[in-house]
Amino acid sequence: MRAIKAILVRNLTNFIRDKVRLFFTVFMAVVFLFIFSFVMKGATKGIENPTSYLVAGIIIMTVFQAALNSSMMTIEDIASGFMKEILVAPIKRFQISIGQILSSAAIAVFEGIMILIMGFFIGLRTDPVQFIELTAIMILVGVTFGAMGLYLAILSKNSTNFQLIISIISMPLTFLSGAYIPTTILPSFISPIVYLNPLTYTTAIYRYITLRMENYSTAKLVKEGVAFDIHGFIITPYLGLIIIFIIGLIFLFLCVVEFNKADFSRVKVSKDAF
Fold first, then answer.
1. Of the chain's two ends, which shows fewer C-beta atoms within 10 Å, N or C?
2. Tell me, what's the pLDDT at 201?
């Protein structure tokens, strides 16, 4: 635990000290929240409380993207030589990987909470219990996609390839999750992709809690796009949450296994990445 805590504190300290990164984190949060939400309001006609509907999607997408992109810290550590130093330290590799994943998750949750707080100024309302529930989901999403990001970073073995992979993955997953465009108005032929998209279920449970849909019938949840009817089998928001938890465990396992056998001497870092 000491090693994990040390890596976590070190990465968070570097994030806070990086004034440029911190500024653009806040700046992009404001852009997404106060500009993008108003642009996309036309796609939410007929939806109760469209502001909260969109803010919930923006928050969870921010957490997702931040968790994936923060995995670049591993490649930065390789470039700086820090990774070589900790690999020869008397700590196990799985502790290093867990520390990196938790760092990505912590940064992602920080950004998500920041947008959540900003959302209060444009009409988003939550009580203390909801705030805790929403934060818990952000932690789960941060760990899940932090593990996925680190796994992809190890496999790519190149900072340029990693950035390309992240771009290719994040764009379709984001727009086919219902975060900005409701899944109920998407063409039916892409429904299989929507159902296979893990972000679909993270967005659904986040909106379910944010919009206080616990008293909605199953039919209404399906109509609102937070539950999904797959040939008669209903995936409720909480069942979707279980799916995300399972995906997180799978990638956590794959990430630790891959990290333990990775040859970091073969990882190439592009100068343009920094």
1. N
2. 93
